[in-house]
Amino acid sequence: MPGEGAGGVRGIVSxxxxxxxxxxxxxxxxxxxxxxxxxxxxxxxxxxxxxxILERLAGDGVPHPIGSPANDVVRARVVExxxxxxxxxxxxxxxxxxxxxxxxxxxxxxxxxxGTQAGEAVLIAAHYDSVPAGPGASDDGxxxxxxxxxxxxxxxxxQPRHSVILLVDDGEExxxxxxxxxxxxxxxAKEIRAxxxxxxxxxxxxSLLFETGTANEWIVRIYAKNARHPATSSIYYTAYKQLPNxxxxxxxxxxxxxxxxxxxxxxxVHYHTRLDNxxxxxxxxLQHQGENALPLLVALANAELSNxxxxxxxxxxxxxxxxxxxxxxxxxxxxxGAALLLILEIAWxxxxxxxxxxxxxxxxxxxxxxxxLTSVAIWLLQKVVGKAGATPVNWVAHPLPxxxxxxxxxxxxxxxxxxxxxxxAGAVGLWGGVWIxxxxxxxxxxWQTQGISYVFIVPTAxxxxxxxxxxxxxxxSARNWGLxxxxxxxxxxxxxxxxxxxxxxxxxxxxxxWLVGIIMCLILSPLAPFFxxxxxxxxxxxxxxxxxxxxxxxxxAFTAIVAPAYSAKAPEAVNLGYWLDADAGKAQWLVHxxxxxxxxxxxxxxxxxxxxxxxxPWSGAPVFLADAPGLGLAAPTFTIQESTVTGSKRSYRAxxxxxxxxxxxxxxxxxxxxxxxxxxxxxxxxxxTERIRQYFNGWEFFDCPAIPAKGIEIxxxxxxxxxxxxxxxxVKYGLPAEGAFLLNARPLTATQSxxxxxxxxxxxxxxxx
Length: 769
Hints:
The chain starts with 5 loop residues before the first helix and ends with a strand. By secondary structure, the chain is of the alpha+beta class. The strands form four sheets. Strands 10, 11, 12, 13, 16, 19, 21, 22 and 23 form a nine-stranded mixed β-sheet that branches. Helix 2 runs antiparallel to helix 3 (69-84), helix 6 (177-185) runs parallel beside helix 9 (248-254) and helix 13 packs across helix 19 (544-562). Helix content is 43%, strand content 20%. The radius of gyration is 29 Å and the shape is globular. The chain has three domains: 6-29 and 329-562, no CATH class; 47-306, Zn peptidases (Aminopeptidase), CATH 3.40.630.10; 572-769, no CATH class.
């Protein structure tokens, strides 16, 4: 372990230099590759060529949700691009519903490159629709441009063994509808054994392999062999499985396909807003999407696709240049081996008197207290910055000070407590305590959550191997070996830990800053042995690291608090609405700010009142309301066309229609309706899960985001003898002309998102079964 006095200073400098180097390499490694020019070789993916396609597809900056005329235009452009490079695209039209009760007609663009063998195929997919609030240049225009550039490159490559299906699908934003139509209906879907999906949740950053099929080890092995700049981790895959998020890959995976899902997540503040435009797309992210998808697709198209082994892998990349992976079934054995070697070394140190038993006990206690006390401090910092207004929304305009403050606080905890416990534990005791705890965590995670376990296994194994010379040499010769034994596993911890920490905010936002701090404390905890020696250092070195860490924490937190949470480039999501209650004849303006607070220009625009939840019984988000003029808009109709009684149930056939030609129409049934056997346009809608019911406060929600002029037929059954009052609602995107004053009041630091600004008309309909 580090030596005393001046040796401690030398150790701190050496350890700091090692960690700083790893951190810089991790930041550098998260930069996607430079775009290839338009004159790159025909067999290669070129962001220059793909970006030209993207400009033709989405350069006009017009949102194009499913069913809109603008979506028809984009679809026609996709067909034209495929035709120009020698494909014969077809349009597949079909009706589908998702588990939330959202149903619509989707129109997919599909093309095929035949392989040398019939029977099995691979799929490359992206969606071309956008949300109503934004043009979707990155989500998923970049994905579509990637598919089209890959389609061109495939023509220049040798004919693959298996056919390649090109799918540019519709309605992903509405509920993965186009993917469902393809997987459920198209005859080519039965041939597909593996799928590559390209999507995004931002406008920049590296293209991450964040999800695979169930044959995880198989796809990771192929990806590792073929990726030029691998960017992935089994942590992402493990975490994503716990989230309620879905992409089209969810559908392909559910249909039995293996494969990979790619996305980039930088600048997530642009996601699903007007700022997801062509100007904000990044050629480097586009290049990385293509460099990931093309070689993997080609490898899959030439691989043995029948019955790949259903096994998991543990894996991670090294600075996007190398990839390390192993079968998950090895993990527990690896962890046991490292832990056993470490325990034997510590036992040998105890026997040789290099380490005293009391010092080891203090070292174990020191690590535990460091993690516990620093976690409390991090939790308090999260509360302070939140109460001070630094995090009114989950992603703010200037997140760097926030991230630095939590990381610096982690360093503060490790340094202060390392010095405090160093007097009793000493450097060797602190070292033993740190790595025994790491070994225990590696065993637990190897047993329970193998995808995360490598963060503990790799540094613990390095610690065990690096400590061998220190444990075996004579006590008087151990100083330099001790420095190596302390620095090498610390460096390994940074290598495996810094990249997930750097991506965590982009992935989950300010709500997990506490987790950023705790993980950073964990990664930095092997620094503790170096601080033990500072108790005898002189002058400025005695308090230098602790002082710098404390000052950095305070300054960064203060900067985060005083920095504006929004900017024109990172605005708050603020949706405006006009709602007409057709039954009461009353209209209101609605404002939905993501922060739950009105920005000043909107607040003074009219006399708003705040509601803790939305105006409808199924809505829970806070909203501001103000009286609005009644505009006499036609209400939607929900007309019972036929009903029959069978036993204790009455079955209905009804027509939901927007009389004013709105884009979207819905019908909502109350929680106690005991609704059964729902079908929209003949398509059965599966019963809602408890999670979905809670999302809508128990209400049953059925929505058609691209309702035809004739309306949509809905079949359902209710118990007889109990009246039920349902809501019929239709929605047009945009405000009426009378809302221009609100549009003008919305500052540049606010923008519409997701469904955006809407005009809503609702009416209640009594059913008397």
